[in-house]
Specification:
Helix content is 75%, strand content 0%. It has five helices and no strands.
């Protein structure tokens, strides 16, 4: 299983602890690593760690997370997943305004 597949399985979403919506939106627009570190410090790392503990398998990705933290493949994949979610929410909100 790759990091993106695992990120989709994790119980982490826009309403999870440690998610700063403005930071996440800016990350979705720029991809700037500064926002990755900021969300890690906001507590998203703890949220991802908790979600990883309950899943079986993916030991290599879990070990990478423990070793590299916010630079790990799985944390970056979670950031990409959340960025897609916030972009989708923004599109739906904009479409609703025009209806």
């Amino acid at each position: 299983m790759d990091a993106d597949e695992l990120a989709e399985r994790l119980d982490v979403n826009l309403h999870s602890d440690g998610v700063c919506l403005p930071c996440l939106y800016e990350f979705s627009q720029s991809g700037d690593s500064w926002f990755v570190v900021t969300l890690w410090q906001e507590g998203l790392g703890e949220t991802v760690a908790s979600a990883l503990r309950v899943l079986r398998g993916a030991d290599d990705l879990k070990a990478d997370f423990e070793r590299r933290g916010c630079r790990s493949d799985i944390f970056r994949a979670v950031m990409r997943k959340l960025a897609r979610e916030i972009e989708d929410d923004a599109r739906r909100a904009l479409a609703a305004v025009w209806n």
